[in-house]
């Protein structure tokens, strides 16, 4: 999967949890998915529309009531759902709020090997300095990312690496995501 598609998927808080639940075998209807994800109706509807726009899901023709449609994964959506399911199985319940943030998973995908701030930013071209900085600080506070400062260089440079749960997530996402230069 291209990093740009991965960034688009994670830009909606509930898109990845919806895909993970579909991978787990939850029916592709609104009520079961709402119950399984715990999302609010509006955020859920926006995430479903987003997944359809990205071409990962489609309405299942001939199934469901017009007011309660049934959805199914497209071939591209099946690979994205498998990745989402793998991510969902690694993270525990307390970590799921961090996974719903836009840049957490793309940054972890970039941290397959220890990287400097500018290298991460180069991999994720649409990210702003502030968004990357906040994402790294949040993951550092959760012990998903380790920051080491190299005092021997001038100016001192920070090197970030994924650790503990962040390392597991980095391995899963980096193996499925390709970076475009």
UniProtKB/TrEMBL annotation:
Q: Which Pfam families match?
A: HxlR
Q: Which UniProt keywords apply?
A: DNA-binding, Transcription, Transcription regulation
Where would I find the HTH hxlR-type domain in this sequence?
90-181
Q: Which domain of life is it from?
A: Bacteria
A single GO molecular function term of this UniProt record: DNA binding
UniProt keyword Transcription present: yes
Output the InterPro entries linked to this UniProt entry: HTH_HxlR, WH-like_DNA-bd_sf, WH_DNA-bd_sf
Q: Which PANTHER family match?
A: TRANSCRIPTIONAL REGULATOR, MARR FAMILY, TRANSCRIPTIONAL REGULATORY PROTEIN
State what protein this is by name.
HxlR-like helix-turn-helix
Q: Which organism is it from?
A: Thalassovita autumnalis
From the broadest rank down, the organism's phylogenetic lineage runs:
Bacteria, Pseudomonadati, Pseudomonadota, Alphaproteobacteria, Rhodobacterales
């Amino acid at each position: 999967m291209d990093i740009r598609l991965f960034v688009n998927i994670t830009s909606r808080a509930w898109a990845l949890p919806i895909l993970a639940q579909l991978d787990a075998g939850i029916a592709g209807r609104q009520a079961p998915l709402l119950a399984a994800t715990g999302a609010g109706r509006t955020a859920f509807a926006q995430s479903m529309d987003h997944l359809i726009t990205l071409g990962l899901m489609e309405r299942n023709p001939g199934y469901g009531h017009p007011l309660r449609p049934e959805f199914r994964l497209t071939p591209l959506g099946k690979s994205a759902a498998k990745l989402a399911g793998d991510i969902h199985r690694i993270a525990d319940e307390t970590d799921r709020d961090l996974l719903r943030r836009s840049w957490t998973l793309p940054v972890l995908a970039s941290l397959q090997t220890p990287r400097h701030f500018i290298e991460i930013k180069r991999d994720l071209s649409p990210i702003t300095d502030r968004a990357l900085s906040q994402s790294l600080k949040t993951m550092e506070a959760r012990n998903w990312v380790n920051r080491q400062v190299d005092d021997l260089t001038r100016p001192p440079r920070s090197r970030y690496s994924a650790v503990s749960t962040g390392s597991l997530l980095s391995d899963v996402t980096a193996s499925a995501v390709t970076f475009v230069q």
